[in-house]
Design a protein that fits this description.
Immunoglobulin-like, 9-stranded antiparallel β-sheet, globular, alpha+beta, Lipoprotein
């Protein structure tokens, strides 16, 4: 038997194995790029530990923050003035990726709200932030004696302690909303008398003189 015939049986299995794997294409290169990008994405985190965390008023404006004393905040609520009225701004200080969008679920005290949040630039990285009209019914989830849960993708569930200052902030923002939308009852500008009214006044004055 010639050497070629001896190698032929070995070549057939090798050919079959190779034929099982499709050739490399652009789609495989694209998958590699996606995998490389995915490896750089921020990894999901567990639900934050909120032991000893409290609500506190922030130094600037109508804003309160939730977190452990002496540590970076975990969550924040603020009253904002917008072109369409007052709004409650929600900030979940969970790192996220630039350009990311999601829904934050707010659950508590018999209410469930789901609101749009976007990756918002901060001093370091990006955090989840969004705005809700101050008169949104499901903001009632923050009121009451029970804990409120705030959940975002990849950030776990953050349990927010009940505190009266949360309701007070929402109340104040809602009052501002009412004041902004109420029609003006009168005008400070003095009303110019009409010609007929002036003539009637002069006639009455002349009658009294006579």
């Amino acid at each position: 038997m010639t050497p070629l015939r001896m190698l032929l049986p070995l070549a057939v299995p090798i050919f079959l194995v190779a034929s099982c794997n499709p050739p490399a294409t652009d789609s495989y290169a694209e998958r590699g790029e996606v995998a490389a990008k995915a490896s750089k994405l921020i990894e999901p985190i567990e639900s934050p530990n909120v032991e000893d965390a409290i609500w506190a008023k922030a130094k600037q404006g109508e804003r309160i923050v939730f977190g452990k004393p002496g540590e970076p905040p975990l969550f924040a609520l603020a009253c904002k003035r917008t072109d369409v009225g007052s709004a409650i701004e929600l900030t979940r200080f969970t790192p996220t990726d630039e350009g990311a969008r999601a829904l934050i679920a707010i659950i508590g005290n018999g209410h469930i709200g789901r609101y749009k949040v976007d990756a918002t630039p901060a001093r370091q990285g990006f955090y989840w932030q969004g705005q809700v009209p101050a008169n949104d019914y499901n903001l009632e989830a923050f009121r009451g004696p029970r804990t409120t849960e705030a959940t975002v993708p990849g950030g776990g569930s953050l349990m927010l302690n009940a505190n009266p200052m949360v309701g007070e902030l929402i109340d104040e923002c809602q009052r501002d909303e009412v004041e902004e939308t109420e029609p003006v009852s009168g005008s400070d500008k003095p009303v110019e008398p009409t010609v007929a009214a002036s003539q009637a006044t002069e006639a009455a004055a002349g009658a009294r003189v006579r």
